[in-house]
Amino acid sequence: MRSSSIHIHPKFKLNGLSYRFDDLYELALDFEKSLIPHEVEIGKFFIEWLNTKDYISVYTSGATGTPKKIIILKTQMTNSAIASGTFFKTNGNTRALLCLPASYIAGKMMLVRAMILGWDLQIKAPKKNAIEQNDNDYDFVAMVPYQVHYSLKHLNKVKKLIIGGAPISKELDEELQLIDTEVFATYGMTETVSHIAIRAINGLAKSNYYHALPKVKFSLDERDCLVIEASEVSNNKVVTNDLVKLISPSSFQYLGRIDNVVNSGGVKLFPEQIEAKLAKFINIQFIIASEKNQTLGEQLILILEEDSSKTILDIKTAFSILSNYERPKKIYIFSKFPFTETGKIKRSEILKNLDQASEII
Fold this sequence. Notes:
Blueprint: E1 13-14, E2 17-18, H1 21-32, H2 37-49, E3 55-59, E4 69-73, H3 74-88, E5 95-98, H4 105-117, E6 120-123, E7 138-143, H5 145-149, E8 158-163, H6 170-176, E9 182-189, E10 194-200, E11 210-212, E12 217-220, E13 225-229, E14 238-248, E15 251-257, E16 262-264, E17 267-269, H7 271-278, E18 286-293, E19 297-305, H8 315-320, E20 330-334, H9 347-352, E21 358-359
Parallel strand pairs: 1-6, 5-6, 5-7, 7-8, 8-9, 19-20
Antiparallel strand pairs: 1-2, 3-4, 9-10, 10-11, 11-15, 12-13, 13-14, 14-15, 16-17, 18-19, 20-21
Helix pairs in contact: 1-2, 3-4
């Protein structure tokens, strides 16, 4: 059954064409029958969005475990869209690009923002060169880091760019300082209905801190992990496994996942921070992790993805910038890293199969 009570902004357009309720539903049915995968996902979402239920079901990315199905109220998605629009000052004259899969919350929310805020949303396949595929200019675009990496030469077409789904490498961060596009890193998850905090990557507003969207507050639990209070998008407080330095109730500095923290000889080490230091010296995929050690309890290890076309730039120099505690005690080569659809490395899966890796040091 369909619900004609769903609000669609009168300025909403999809690929330059205006759609009201019935027209959008017909388009959704056509997309659902499409032979193009990303159109099928968009069609499925629109059909679910336009039905009489007050919620939709969404799967998490599976970056830290098995993807799980959760329920999100449509009113919460609407509230998230309005908060995002307020923060970024996007209005009914905004031309935006959807180049993320609509199977996950980030892509779904681009569709909701367009409908609620009245955007003209262009749809492109979620490929690495989505911007390159056309000559349009955009006011607002959302991408994952690997898409940004392959779109650097074309970002002059974009006024505001948000990046989420995976960490931004030191190399990519440096490249983004050279462009005029306003670039922001986002913090959020499926449970918070996409992003609830933003960090400016470049320009005069560049910051190491994430700042909350409207009506979002932060605190810490006993583990020093971030707790999110965002009543507009979640009925309950969201307790994360993200270790942060709390700057204020509305801002924080991200330190790393508590799941990844290594206690080596009583010293707590943050793999994500060590990875950031090593990034300019290692030009292949890698992670810092740990393994059991009889003396230290845990010892740091460096795991490299095997890639015969590339080499480590200078491992000796790389290790020299680290403290004694931060230097990996062993280096492994792993044949092929597993990734989520948004580009996050599945660390737990690599460690679970570490016996398949080759030790080189």
